[in-house]
Amino acid sequence: MKKQAFYFLALVLIFFAASNLGCQKTKGAFLWWGCDYVELDISGVKVLIDPYGGIPRKANLLLITHSHADHCHVPTLRNVLAISGKATELALGSSQCAACFDQIPGIEKKLVAKGETVHYKNLLIQAWPSVEGEAGISYFIRDGQTGISFLHLGDHNSYIRDFQGMPPVDYLFLAMGKMSLEDMIATLKDIRPKYLAPIHYMTQGWAPQYGFPSPADPARYIADLEKRIKSENISTQLLILKTGEPFRLT
Ligand SMILES: [Zn+2]
Q1: What integer is the mean pLDDT of 209-233?
Q2: Nearest to residue 26, comparing CAs of 46, 47, 44?
Q3: Ligand 1 center to residue 124 CA distance, Å?
Q4: Which of 164, 172, 203, 220 has the maximum number of C-beta atoms within 10 A of its C-beta?
Q5: How many other C-beta atoms are found inside a 10 Å radius of the C-beta of residue 200?
Q6: pLDDT tens sequence across 177-218
Q7: DSSP one-letter string for 85-134
Q8: How far apart are the CA of 116 and the centre of ligand 1, in A?
Q9: Of 88 and 21, which is predicted with more confidence?
Q10: What is the pLDDT of residues 57-82, one digit of tens each?
Q11: Which helix (H) or strand (E) element contains residue 46?
Q12: Distance of alpha carbon 106 from alpha carbon 57, whole angstroms
């Protein structure tokens, strides 16, 4: 009997050890779907920023930086709502998104201005400026559970001093082909993110029917940026994402 109890205990210990090995703890993930479309999966909340290209993903929260058709894209937003059902609870957008938001009924929508803070579940979301022809906004998002922070600059296209007071940023999503190299470097020096993920281009031809207004040669922008980051001794690491492949946060 004693022998049986020993074997049972040994089996239980092996089971727990194996399950700990098998499920390495993750703090969430993010995906990039081309253009400025970024999906965050953090603290059990799914966030879509500027969903585009007709690619529907389930979402609890939608963040739209500005009203241009590749950012506040009604067909993609409708696809998202169709597969998410009641899971999509809130959409935030810049003041220019009112007309676009009118076309996606059935969820709570809020137009936010720079400086505003919104809390959604464990997330703190702050609206920062984003310059792109009209009053756009960028989003600083911090996960209260893990402390990991993100900044999505929308189509921000020129250097402004406003980011000098930015809280620490782990992951910066930055559109290529919008700012000059000098402006990108100056902006990076103000924000000092740990990682920079270049976006606003397409790598694998997803949903080509909508077109992607990306720079013709994103690789050149990225290579020039990488060179300057090194020569300026900026500690930010470049993160080259592939569309649709999750980047796991550990
Ligand atoms: Zn754009």
Answers
A1: 88
A2: 44
A3: 25
A4: 172
A5: 27
A6: 999 999 999 999 999 999 999 999 877 666 666 777 778 888
A7: GGG--EEEE-GGGHHHHHTSTTSEEEE--TT-EEEETTEEEEEEEEEESE
A8: 23
A9: 88
A10: 999 999 999 999 999 999 999 999 99
A11: strand 45-49
A12: 17
Distance 184 CA to ligand 1 centre (A): 16
User: What separation in Å is there between the alpha carbon of 70 and the centre of ligand 1?
Assistant: 5
Residue 86 CA to ligand 1 center (angstroms) comes to 28
For residue 36, the CA-to-ligand 1 centroid distance in Å is 7
Sequence ranges of the domains in the chain: 27-202+209-241
- Residue-wise pLDDT tens digits, 104-134: 988 999 999 999 999 999 999 999 999 875 6
CA distance 76 to 73: 6
Residue 247 CB neighbours (<10 A): 15
Residue of 210, 205, 92 whose CA lies nearest to 141:
92
* Angstrom distance (rounded) from CA 74 to CA 158: 27
